Amino acid sequence: MLEENSSKTLNVLIVEDSYFFSRWLCNELLNIGSINITAVVDNAHDAMKIISEADVDLAIVDVRLKEGLGTDILKSIKTTNSKTKVIIFTNHAEFKKECLKLGADYFYDKSNEFDELIESIINLSAR
Questions:
Q1: Could you read off the pLDDT tens digit of each residue along the chain, which spans 127 residues?
Q2: Largest CA distance in the chain
Q3: How many C-beta neighbours within 10 Å does residue 7 have?
Q4: How many CB atoms lie within 10 A of CB 117?
Q5: Spatial contact of 73 and 28, defined as CB atoms under 8 Å apart
Q6: Any domain includes 52
Q7: Is residue 56 within 8 Å of 84, Cβ to Cβ?
Q8: Could you give the number of structural domains in the chain?
Q9: Does the residue 1 lie in any domain?
Q10: Pick from 29, 80, 111, 119: most CB atoms within 10 A?
Q11: pTM of this prediction?
Q12: Residue 4: inside a domain, yes or no?
């Protein structure tokens, strides 16, 4: 019996309150195979709702949001769903130590680590 080639789709949640960055990130993800953008939200409340209702493999989270903090989302993911990878993508480098301590899988600075962010997503989608 032949087995089907079943490459798994990476379900991604984007939590970003900057329209520019969320659009840029969506466009970049569309160029990567095996990616499904589950949702794009701009606040912690909506992010927590999506995480509780959907199968999310990767959350890309900003720290400072219009409503809430990305660190709260990170804590929630890491305490309730350990298989979900979290990338923090922010302009607030002062949160790096805290985010890594809370379990962030990656932490990237919006001002200069675009390539590293995309490379990490590509690597995660290939697993």
A1: 333 344 589 999 999 999 999 999 999 999 988 899 999 999 999 999 999 999 999 999 999 998 999 999 999 999 986 799 999 999 999 999 999 999 999 999 999 999 999 999 999 998 7
A2: 55
A3: 10
A4: 20
A5: no
A6: yes
A7: yes
A8: 1
A9: no
A10: 29
A11: 0.91
A12: no
